[in-house]
Design a protein that fits this description.
alpha+beta
Length: about 250
């Protein structure tokens, strides 16, 4: 069932290119909770969005896709009227997707180490380590990103092999530690307040958090690849949470 769900989500997202209303057949007809604040909830809302986007001659590339229980999560790149990178999360009940979250930002880069926002390994391994890897990333976000315990960084992150895909980031443990110093570059400081969800399959773990950048409420989606019990690679997207007066439903971003 896991493979089938992933393939159905791939088919769904590729439907953005054509606007084909049949692409949304994986979406439950009776229950679909949309958490993108600026997209109508329900299957009809998604079909309308696809029809609108298809007029921009879009291209969709699902770079990575994973499954965790009833969740499928994917790392995607889009070329609409502009190039963007996103994470998509779907919750299933049986054969139907019943809930959706996403986080999308303009594509930037390459970064100072030459990496794009999406390149690197794409296939999950080490499936027996899924829960240990989930616990590692949860502790990293809670202790380092939220509590600011940067002195514990080497407990969670590889000190000799760390690859960074953030557009302004660079490879290496030292570069990561510097980037976590919110006083070094206040305009780029990412302040994490709350961890909402941690999804994992094998050595890939996605953390969904909220916080702020320059005082503006912001959503952080961070994908980590774990190797030998330490975080060895990182991708992310950062999106400002639209103000409530612009929301098309009351489901919330998270």
């Amino acid at each position: 069932m896991t493979t089938t769900r992933i393939e159905r989500i791939r088919t769904l997202l590729k439907g953005i290119e054509t606007g084909d209303p049949d692409a949304v057949s994986v979406i439950s007809q009776t229950q679909y909770i949309q958490h993108n604040p600026q997209t109508q909830t329900g299957r009809q809302g998604l079909a309308a969005l696809f029809a609108r986007l298809s007029k921009t001659s879009p291209r969709v590339n699902i770079v990575r896709a994973f499954a965790d229980g009833d969740f499928v999560f994917g790392h995607t790149e889009y070329d609409f009227d502009s190039r963007r990178v996103g994470f998509e999360v779907f919750r299933f009940e049986g054969d139907s997707a019943v809930e959706h979250w996403d986080n999308i930002q303009p594509r930037r880069g390459p970064n100072p180490s030459g990496h794009s926002m999406v390149d690197g390994p794409t296939e999950a391994t080490d499936f027996d380590d899924t829960e240990a890897n989930r616990a590692l990333v949860r502790a990293f976000v809670e202790r380092v990103r939220i509590a600011g315990e940067t002195n514990t960084l080497d407990t969670f992150v590889s000190t000799d092999r760390y690859t960074e895909h953030h557009p302004n980031g660079a490879d290496g443990f030292a570069a990561l530690k510097l980037s976590l110093d919110v006083t070094a570059n206040p305009s780029e400081a990412l302040v994490y307040h709350r961890l909402h969800r941690v999804l994992a399959q094998g050595n890939f773990v996605l953390a969904v958090s909220e916080g702020s950048r320059e005082g503006v409420r912001t959503s952080f989606y961070d994908l980590y690849r774990v190797e030998a019990g330490r975080i060895a690679e990182h991708w992310d997207t950062i999106e400002v949470v639209a103000p409530p007066e612009e929301w098309k439903h009351d489901n919330g971003k998270f």
